[in-house]
Amino acid sequence: MAFHIVVCGSIVPDPLQTLEPVKGPAGWGLKNELMLPAVLDPWAGHALFEAANLAKNQPGSKVWLVSLGPKAKLQQVMMTVAQKVPFELVAVDGPAGGFTEAAEVAEALAGAIEAIPGLDKGQLLLFGGWQSASRGTGAVMQMVGERLGIAEQFQGVDELKVEAGGAFTVKERIEGGAYQVSRCAGAPAVCGWATGNLPEPPNNPQVGMQNMRLIMPALQKAKPAQLKGEGVGFAAVELPRQTRQTKIVKDTSVEDIAKEIVSWLKA
After folding, report:
1. Residue 264 lies in a domain
2. How far is it, in rounded angstroms, from Cα 249 to Cα 195?
3. Is 251 a member of any domain?
4. Is the residue at 18 inside a domain?
5. Peptide bond between residue 188 and the one before it cis (omega within 30 degrees of 0)
6. Spatial contact of 78 and 19, defined as CB atoms under 8 Å apart
């Protein structure tokens, strides 16, 4: 069974950088945001690797990566991502970050997906991150699916297995470290991926060169997306505070230390 797999994934600032929220004339953003190195959102990365693995095992399948972000940043990130797995890029030029409105992002992504030439919605598997490293609303993929008329949606996916006739089973994370296993008769469907089961693929220069032949024209043709953020406001923005309580004592027995740790945990 061949699938048309569309992966939604944007770029985020490298998590190793120091991020500081600031409010400017256009609203909230990150300090020196244009200077910060970017990476593909890790959640979207898992979805992309799972999509490529599925396409490899299902002859005739194809993978598209639909990404909303500034063209210059997208080009930098794609130089690295392109060497991982085969895909065709669909770029949308617009802001990407923690201060965009999920509904506007979903509308822009859905429009870009509907404009993909030759896309068969009857074979469509829509992949993306269950959450996001920029703003974990967990809402964008659901809304993109709704705008495309896809009712079968699975969130927190760690495994997808396809059967001979095109049906597939999905393992979704639920509370308490347990999984819910569902069986879907076939495409179309939406899968918001968690971490999956696959490691990050090694760099392959040949795959990179093949991808870049399509990536550069896609970036040049990227349509602008105006995300106005109307009706959305942020009363305050701050980084999570680190709390550290240190107590230094001497000549304390292991039993007393253990009791104190248990008491602290109960509190």
Report:
1. no
2. 41
3. no
4. yes
5. yes
6. no
Tokens of 109: 């992504």
Cβ atoms 71, 91 nearer than 8 A: yes
Q: In 198-252, which ranges are E strands?
A: 223-224
Hey, what are 7's tokens? 């992966």
* 47: containing domain: 4-224
Element (H, E) at 257: helix 254-266
Q: What is the pLDDT along the chain (267 residues), one digit of tens a residue?
A: 899 999 999 998 887 777 888 887 777 778 877 778 889 999 999 999 999 999 999 999 999 999 999 999 999 999 999 999 999 999 999 888 778 888 899 999 999 999 999 999 999 999 999 988 876 677 899 999 999 999 999 999 999 999 988 999 999 999 888 999 999 999 999 999 999 889 999 999 999 999 999 999 999 999 988 877 766 777 777 777 777 777 788 888 899 889 988 988 887
Paired tokens of 120: 């068969």
Closest to 194 (Cα-Cα) out of 162, 155, 161, 168: 155
Does residue 252 lie within any of the structural domains?
no
Count how many residues are written for the chain: 267
C-alpha dihedral, 115 to 118 to 119 to 121, nearest 10°: 110
Residues 46 and 129 sit within 8 Å (Cβ to Cβ):
yes
Total domain count for the chain?
A: 1
Looking up residue 166, the CATH number of its domain turns out to be 3.40.50.620
